[in-house]
Write a structure and sequence with these properties.
Elements (H helix, E strand, L loop, with lengths): L6 E2 L28 H11 L11 E6 L5 E2 L2 E2 L4 H5 L5 E5 L4 H9 L5 E6 L6 E14 L23 E16 H14 L7 H4 L5 E4 L1 H9 L7
Parallel strand pairs: 1-5, 2-6
Antiparallel strand pairs: 2-9, 3-4, 5-8, 6-7, 7-8
GO cellular component, one term: nucleus
Function: Specifically binds 5-hydroxymethylcytosine (5hmC), suggesting that it acts as a specific reader of 5hmC.
Subcellular location: Nucleus
Amino acid sequence: DKKEPDAKIAKTEEETSDKEDEEKSAKPPAGSSKSGWKNWKKTKESESGGEESKITYCHWLLKSEPESRLEKGVDVKFSIDDLKAQPNQTTCWDGVRNYQARNFLRAMKIGQQAFFYHSNCKEPGIVAIVKIVKEAYPDHTQFDQKDPHYDSTSRKENPKWSMVDVQFVRMTKRFIPLSEIKAHHLAHKADGGPLKDMMLFTRQRLSIQPLTQEEFDFVLSLEEEKPH
């Protein structure tokens, strides 16, 4: 069996237009109470003068497949246990072949945290937190003819695709299933909570997704709750 040391992301992306998203580091708010989303909304509105058009992303959600699936003869499985088994619990996040997802990769900054999300499996959801330890650089798999993500149209002098390096931080205190996050999303759509526009539901097929500070804090607060 050929060892595949590099991270393989879920190939469930949809084609999108090439769009750069603004990226800015931000300090977390003092509180991250699960009941604090109304205050977050008021603060956001006051800071923006009531305008909701400018959104700052400072955290991420990275989808990876924990169950075996062959793509062009290569198993693209990469679970959180696979990441933890890597040297220094660090690996490159390669294989992204969607322009919007690629642009999100290019916007990532060292030290930013992301949710590690198990995708395309029996029960998808968030299992861990990782951090960005190396900013975007050319994805070597685009030039490897034996790799399922090989791109014959990409040139080394002007690579189309990028990757970052991520490192394991910790497991979440409990598994946070997609079904639970979706229930909050639907509730927040009705009354203006922080998950109302969460990309996990508005652009669900993207394997790299940005999160606002409010989205990240609210989802993280769920690990303190008992499973529903």
